[in-house]
What does this fold into?
Amino acid sequence: GARIGILGGGQLGRMLSVAAARLGFQTHIFDPSLTPPAGHVADRHTTAAYEDAKALKAFAADVDVITYEFENIPTEALDILETIRPIRPGREALRVSQDRLTEKSFLQGLGLRTAPYADVTDMASLEQAVAQIGTPAILKTRRFGYDGKGQARINTAEDVAKAIADMAGAPAILEGFVDFSHEISVIAARGMDGQVACYDPGENVHRDGILHTTTVPARLSGSQRLDAVLLAGQVLNALDYVGVMGVELFVTSDGLIVNEIAPRVHNSGHWTQNGCTVDQFEQHIRAVVGWPLGEGERFADVVMENLIGSDIARVMQLSQDKHTAIHMYGKSEAKPGRKMGHINRITAHKA
Ligand code: ATP
Ligand code: MG
Ligand code: MG
It folds into this structure.
């Protein structure tokens, strides 16, 4: 069988490795840390920095195709890798999603709706942006933000100075606050033949900026559900995308607004592990090796809950529930805010 190279050895890389192994593929993880979660389950692991050209070349030469579990891979590393092996999903998806400004203009270019936004580089441009967009608003770093990090809420004019200080000089965008009723995401996949498969949208609840639960089915009308899935397909087709993508959406009284896209398997898609025949991890591996995609049909109602930091103390208690599947990431240290594992609780079986 082929060997799949995965950039990043966190829990997503780990679950991709497990899925690859199940399909008969070997995996090779590239991750700077000595003991990444994926390191325990992958066939090989290169411990090197993304700046290490020699290590990148050896890694690429050892695999047949390269994929990734996070979108912030340095461009220079990708330049080296892509001369040796194909990178899937491709460069365009990474370019668009690495920068919130590029991402928003791409989405609007497709005719999709986003929060109103403006480019912010300094105090003067922030003041101008606040005047244009109004409050409440959120200032976000353009790059490298995740789990709500690199964000500052602006409710009044007094928050402006603190918000700009929080950005520490990093390029940012100001987003108008979307008055949503709830948040959903579509986990969608596109194969090498252009076939698209979407999972049923999940409803997401965040706590302290971190995803707390995803519930399927989400509260959506039939037409909202169709809108969500069609919109996700449109994004994938526009990028000539190969692999799984997470599309985060706000549900409002006058339609769906796109929050952000993630060119990879997504935390809000973990429910598929116990709710679908082919889960998002197998789907992603199928896509990047050129296999046909699974259908994505859901056979259960599921609540996924992240186990964050000290939540792992509850694992033994959670294991008493016979309808709860437990997924642990093998991380030794339970720091606050650190994703240690998740559970998928089956709440109903579909007929
Ligand atoms: P992730 O871990 O999903 O990558 P992130 O750090 O990239 O998160 P966002 O998804 O942009 O951050 O924002 C985190 C959460 O903050 C959103 O899921 C939503 O609850 C809230 N939020 C972000 N932007 C807006 C907005 N413009 N209006 C209202 N709420 C927002
Ligand atoms: Mg994000
Ligand atoms: Mg998000």
About this structure: Residues 152 and 162 are 8 Å apart (CA to CA). The chain has three domains: 3-87, 116-176, 182-349. The longest strand covers residues 339-349. The domain at 182-349 is CATH 3.30.470.20 (D-amino Acid Aminotransferase; Chain A, domain 1).
